[in-house]
Amino acid sequence: GKNVSELNLAEAALLAGLIQRPARTEPQTHPEVARDRRNVVIDKMLELGWIEASDAEQARASPITLADQTPLSDQARYPYFTEEVKRRLLDDPALGATATDRYDALFRGGLKIYTTIDPIMQETAEAAIADVMGGEEPSAGLVSIDPRTGHVLAIVGGKDFYDPEDPNAQFNLATQGRRQPGSAFKPFVLAAALESGIELDTIVRGGQRVSIDTPSGPWVVKNYNDSVFPDLSVLEATVFSVNVIYARLMDQVGPALVAEIAMSAGITQELLPYHSLALGAQEVSVLDMASAYTTFAASGNHVEPIFVTRIENSSGAVIYSPKPVVTQALPRSVADRVTQALTEVVRRGTGQQARIGRVTAGKTGTSQNNSDAWFVGYTPELVTAVWVGFPDGQIPLTAPRTPYTITGGTWPAQIWSRYASAALAGVPYGELATAQDDGMVTVEVDLSTGFLAGPYCPRSSVQRLRLPRDAAPTVVCPIHNPAGITAVGATATPDVVGFSLEDAALLLLDQGFDVRIEWVRIDNLATGTVFNMSPPAGSDAQIGTIVKLSVAGETPTDSVAAVLGFPLEEARARLFGFEVQVFLLAEENPSDAARRSGLVWKQAPASGTPGADVVTLWVNP
């Protein structure tokens, strides 16, 4: 540094210009703003007669020359987290009555501050984002919280806090940024509906689009990709994120109740009671979304986020020890039923790429113009919100800016999966409420037409749905129907070419067929993709017929998959790729049989065991 006596006119004016708004005029990150502010000071000095015109002209023409940037040894290891801690403490009256008192206490008081950060989880979060996104241009924000304590364990607020080329590098995208959460906001509508007496099995009218009268005029809502959904239960509408049905739910319960519930759950931003809130049209932070979902994970209890556990002064005395602020934000029955629905989102809905081998709940979100993509997921031990987008504005996450169209079910869910699977490694499984589907049947619907899918419907438009028996469509799609089929043929083999092995096996088993697998190494297909089947799709076949699937990849030698908490048929499908013999034991789990009927509650050998030839599954009858 320099002594004050060594400063020239331009340098002195630069420093004087920083005083009013140091963050906005800091020359390292805002050189042009700093230069303009410096020149304002020089002009004022000239106006007051403190300097000569020639000196002013020379000072204005001087370039800004700065010392080298902070060396790496002096940089904070986890800057987004530590800067958020500083920002919060500078606003906390516990450290002093005035802003000056708090600043002096924080930076000159010799304090020792103990935070909630988990360094391993923090580094895991950063690695998960780097692994999934690589060097791609969008940014990501991530916040991870323990829902039992409110402790904030990890924050990723941007790519590189110390990037001299990025003027916004030190803006925390996870805590200071606010973006539209899209369908990740639907759980708050669901909570409002359940609190109003609507049930998960309540049937709501579907369709392709709907127009709803609101105080500000008609609100027109359509489904993603213009999909046509039949009448669905609230559960299925949540699993497949059906906008039309959620618009109807919002109109039924009212936006004021939804806003109230979301803010009680942990959204700190004031929410306006507009119908569009149902689809996440108002901006929120990543921190707030993680905090609000802790309410679902903790069965309705909300603990305000905690960043600091205690502060000691220079003598070692504890001067700050915040107590958790806990509120009952939702009735337990409501929160647990939201969780029941969100476990299905991950198990078989839009959040399947977030599966980690244990029961997980979560919701995807994608803003209307694809500029924001979210996944917020949880187990009883961990809640994590992930946002992906361009920090500079509402820029669509579509090609050529991204390799393909990014939605909440792609990069955000993949980041969440990589992070959570590593963060929870070795953590005993907790229990989440899971959905019961009594009286439901599984059918395939062609979402481009709304009819029951036939063997010739394009697989990209076909979705397997769980519907009440009396609400399931019975007419096979007449649009994609060259064979003239008019009713469901129990012996028609479904087309599973292009499916993942797990999904193909699950569909075939669900329709009464047996499955055999042939692994074939093919370089241009993703491992686990079905590329041929025998007999072919649409063939007449008896129930129990063996369908042989040709699957891309080497014969697996990996350790056995985790299937605890899965329905029996899905558990069998997950194990197909490991070429193991499965034995079944119908035996009640003494502690939880009634609530988890039909689900696997024990497996031997345990998941992760390499080289197993036989796997035994215990299933609640």
From TrEMBL:
Keywords: Carboxypeptidase, Glycosyltransferase, Hydrolase, Multifunctional enzyme, Protease, Transferase. This is peptidoglycan glycosyltransferase. GO terms for biological process: peptidoglycan biosynthetic process; proteolysis. It catalyses: [GlcNAc-(1->4)-Mur2Ac(oyl-L-Ala-gamma-D-Glu-L-Lys-D-Ala-D-Ala)](n)-di-trans,octa-cis-undecaprenyl diphosphate + beta-D-GlcNAc-(1->4)-Mur2Ac(oyl-L-Ala-gamma-D-Glu-L-Lys-D-Ala-D-Ala)-di-trans,octa-cis-undecaprenyl diphosphate = [GlcNAc-(1->4)-Mur2Ac(oyl-L-Ala-gamma-D-Glu-L-Lys-D-Ala-D-Ala)](n+1)-di-trans,octa-cis-undecaprenyl diphosphate + di-trans,octa-cis-undecaprenyl diphosphate + H(+). Residues 489-553 form the PASTA domain. PANTHER family: BINDING PROTEIN TRANSPEPTIDASE, PUTATIVE-RELATED, PEPTIDOGLYCAN GLYCOSYLTRANSFERASE. Pfam families: PASTA, Transgly, Transpeptidase.
